[in-house]
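Please fill in the sequence for the structure shown.

STRUCTURE ENCODING:
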């Protein structure tokens, strides 16, 4: 280990840069030609700001701590210089050794980083061996993979520590250490694991820390792992038209369901969408509810097997699915802005300070929060770091409980200079608990959280604007919402959850064994199949003409954000039909026969 940690004794900033001042090319960064081929194959034309700044420093052998916004290309900013160094070293010394360790907080991220390493080194594949230690393979397989001393090992701190403990992983000849999402690794409870990694590091390892925010956790890691690092704080000037447009709708608890039905059935959101909800049950409630209208979606949560989760993200990125419903339980535990931050922070600092001492540690008493988390997969994370590609909209069906988490959720859209939209549904306090069947506790503080979000975004020059749905017009859809919600009972949700878990476990096993041999078959496994335990009401899958706006959805879809011009009706069609029948002197029975819900010729608008 390099030195004892004193969290107050943090090395001073060496470089500080802000602004997107220059554009260069990857070739001018002096990267190996084989890497340039790999970069070109990824269709990367110019380096992003963080790549422009960090790559030369890393190639110079400097320790780097870079803070750059989500989606700004941090992954390539550390992978490329590492690959370059490996290729360079191999020209003079072909001895195989593990020279690079990349630590990430979640398995999903590990897989993503592994794929990026493979992609960038595809023209030098015989010279670079990388493994992802978070893959669920037996210890024996893992040992044999590590016995080959792969050049790059990608792992969560827990996995790395485990393999160091069993002597399967040797860091004796390590030259580069990367900690990605550095602001997150400590809050995931990896303190002890990082301690073990730090103890095993040889002298002179180059450390690169990547983070979207510079928190006290990052400062702690910087003090522990870095030698006089170059600190990059990068603020990119936003090009007009780029970035996330942020909107918020204040509505009742049940109206969330009404709006989500209207949004997807009338295709008010075009393109791929990630819907964030508060917990796992909520994922299934919403999926079953949308199924009632024939709207397909797939689910991501910590309960699903890791292979399924990775597969869902891959398929979503390929465009197989349009809607993912994700729950982000780590943040639901309120571990960020819940006022207990300082206390947790003190504990973290004390824990990490211990990393530098040789004194035996007090046995760790897991907090209530940690115990709760432990039931789920600790190494799961969706709103952080995962590179969902081409996401048009992030829909916060349930608002997160902190502004930090909001920032990371909306960072799943408008990546790499694209545009995107974030729409958040917020329950005002006077409407909390007004619709018990759809009520959840986390919405209690929606307004407080929204105030924090608005303040935080304003500080960064961003505005969260109201999205003015005309709720009176949306009302026409309410009875359909009621029908659909009634079918999604608690029992239906429980059954769906169990069924999906069982199916995904089976798929996951199959995925692991079978698809290693037949990678081409992967696409046959879909994750957005119907769960079907809820009562099926096939008429709900179609939107009858009389519910549609007179002018169609053109006015809404044509960039007319801020108003949903659904046709204003004075009288609904059922009542009109009844009145007309009455006027003609027809009896009740005839009128009921003409009920459009039972007689209309369904015409799908989708
Ligand atoms: N130079 C580039 N040109 C074009 N696209 C790029 C470039 N660099 C990265 N990208 C793309 O931008 C997206 C975001 O990159 P990446 O995941 O590395 O961002 P990040 O900063 O690590 O985000 P997060 O903080 O959310 O983890 C990826 O899809 C990546 O392929």
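FILLED IN BY: designer on duty
SEQUENCE:
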């Amino acid at each position: 280990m390099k030195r004892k940690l004193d969290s107050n004794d943090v090395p001073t900033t060496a470089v500080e840069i802000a602004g997107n001042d220059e554009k260069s090319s990857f070739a001018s960064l002096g990267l190996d030609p084989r890497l340039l081929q790999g970069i070109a194959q990824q269709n990367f034309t110019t380096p992003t700001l963080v790549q422009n700044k960090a790559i030369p420093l890393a190639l110079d052998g400097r320790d780097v701590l870079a803070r750059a916004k989500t989606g700004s290309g941090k992954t390539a900013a550390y992978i490329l210089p590492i690959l370059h160094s490996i290729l360079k070293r191999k020209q003079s010394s072909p001895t195989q050794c593990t020279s690079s360790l990349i630590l990430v907080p979640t398995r999903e991220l590990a897989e993503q980083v592994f794929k990026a390493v493979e992609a960038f080194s595809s023209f030098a594949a015989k010279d670079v061996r990388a493994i992802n230690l978070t893959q669920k393979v037996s210890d024996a397989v893992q040992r044999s993979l590590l016995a080959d001393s792969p050049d790059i090992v990608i792992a969560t701190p827990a996995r790395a520590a485990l393999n160091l403990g069993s002597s399967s992983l040797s860091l004796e000849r390590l030259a580069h250490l990367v900690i990605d999402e550095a602001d997150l690794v400590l809050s995931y409870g990896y303190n002890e694991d990082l301690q073990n990694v730090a103890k095993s590091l040889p002298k002179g390892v180059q450390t690169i820390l990547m983070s979207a925010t510079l928190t006290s956790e990052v400062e702690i890691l910087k003090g522990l792992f870095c030698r006089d690092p170059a600190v990059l704080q990068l603020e990119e000037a936003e090009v007009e038209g780029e970035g996330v447009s942020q909107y918020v709708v204040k509505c009742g608890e049940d109206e969330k369901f009404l709006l989500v039905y209207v949004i997807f059935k009338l295709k008010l959101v075009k393109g791929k969408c990630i819907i964030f909800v508060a917990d796992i049950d909520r994922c299934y409630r919403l999926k079953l509810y949308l199924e009632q209208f024939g709207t397909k979606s797939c689910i991501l949560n910590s309960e699903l097997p890791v292979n399924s989760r990775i597969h869902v993200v891959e398929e979503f990125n390929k465009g197989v699915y349009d809607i993912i419903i994700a729950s982000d339980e780590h943040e639901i535990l309120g571990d960020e802005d819940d006022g207990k931050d300082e206390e947790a922070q003190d504990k973290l600092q004390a824990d990490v300070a211990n990393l530098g001492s040789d004194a035996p540690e007090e046995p760790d008493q897991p907090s209530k929060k940690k115990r709760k988390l432990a039931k789920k997969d600790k190494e799961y994370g969706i709103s952080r770091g995962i590179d969902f590609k081409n996401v048009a909209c992030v829909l916060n069906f349930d608002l997160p409980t902190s502004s930090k988490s909001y920032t990371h959720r909306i960072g799943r859209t408008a990546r790499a200079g694209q545009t995107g939209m974030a729409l958040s549904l917020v329950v005002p306090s006077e409407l909390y608990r007004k619709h018990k069947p759809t009520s959840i506790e986390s919405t209690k503080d929606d307004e407080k959280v929204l105030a924090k979000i608005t303040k935080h975004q304003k500080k960064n020059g961003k505005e969260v604007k109201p999205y003015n749905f005309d709720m009176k017009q949306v009302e026409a859809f309410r009875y359909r919402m009621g029908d659909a919600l009634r079918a999604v009972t608690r029992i239906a949700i429980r059954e769906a959850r169990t069924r999906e878990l069982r199916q995904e476990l089976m798929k996951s096993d199959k995925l692991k064994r079978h698809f290693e041999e037949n990678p081409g078959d992967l696409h046959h496994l879909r994750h957005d199949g119907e769960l079907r335990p809820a009562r099926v009401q096939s008429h709900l899958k179609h939107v009858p003409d009389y519910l549609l706006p007179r002018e169609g959805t053109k006015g809404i879809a044509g960039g007319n954000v801020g108003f949903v011009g659904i046709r204003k009706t004075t009288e609904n069609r059922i009542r009109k039909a009844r009145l007309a029948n009455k006027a003609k002197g027809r009896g009740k029975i005839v009128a009921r026969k003409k009920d459009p819900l039972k007689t209309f010729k369904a015409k799908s608008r989708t």
